[in-house]
Design a protein that fits this description.
This protein has helices at 52-58, 108-115, 136-142, 153-158, 164-171, and strands spanning 10-14, 27-34, 37-42, 46-51, 70-73, 77-86, 96-98, 102-105, 123-133, 146-150. With 186 residues, it is α+β, with helices and mostly antiparallel strands. A hairpin with a 2-residue loop joins strand 2 and strand 3.
């Protein structure tokens, strides 16, 4: 029996015409995907009016040496909950390793480590996440809602949030200018 094609460690790119304005041009780093459902962190938009230093101050953590970077809008689920998507050179007790690609942490320990200069070498901060129930993401994939591409370090850490969606398609050899919201059956 073939294994189902789970997308953990890949990026999901919203197809044109996805039908949900919250996910237009979305880029989602898939952290968990199995027969029970899926969880991903959005990397295609920035949360307005708060930066990483502002978040740390709200949590009574001195920013220290942490850069004052933008925070990604991780998704519509639990938008007050913070996540750090990061390189595998740091791991806490609650960190989840995502294949051999990256790790996901959601505790104050990683925030303190970043502020002290002892955290992961590469990381992104996000508030909220995108979640799917069992079989829901598979239905959306069959309905032409999403395209999966490799979750490379370049796309995660080196791409600008405004160009990440386009760069994701280009990395798979697809010119997103040629995509259409129309689809059908042959």
């Amino acid at each position: 029996m073939d294994q189902p094609p789970f997308l953990t460690g890949q990026l999901l790119l919203a197809m044109p015409g996805i039908g949900d304005p919250r996910f237009e041009r979305a880029v989602i780093a898939m952290c968990v995907h199995d027969e029970n459902g899926a969880l991903g962190i959005g990397l295609g938009r920035i949360v307005p009016r708060i930066s990483f230093h502002g978040l740390l101050k709200q949590l009574d953590i001195e920013p220290g040496v942490a850069p004052d970077v933008a925070i990604h809008l991780g998704g519509p689920v639990e938008p007050q909950r913070g996540f750090i998507l990061h390189s595998l050179d740091w791991g806490g007790q609650e960190s989840i390793q995502v294949g051999d690609r990256w790790a996901l942490s959601a505790t104050l320990d990683i925030l303190r480590a970043i502020a002290e200069g002892k955290g992961p070498t590469r990381w992104l901060a996000a508030l909220g996440y995108a979640g799917w129930g069992a079989g829901q993401l598979e239905q959306e994939l069959c309905g032409n809602g999403w395209f999966a591409c490799e979750g490379s370090d370049r796309l995660l850490y080196d791409s600008d949030v405004d160009t990440r969606w386009t760069e994701g398609f280009l990395s798979a050899g697809i010119d997103p200018r040629l995509l259409t919201a129309d689809f059908g059956t042959a």
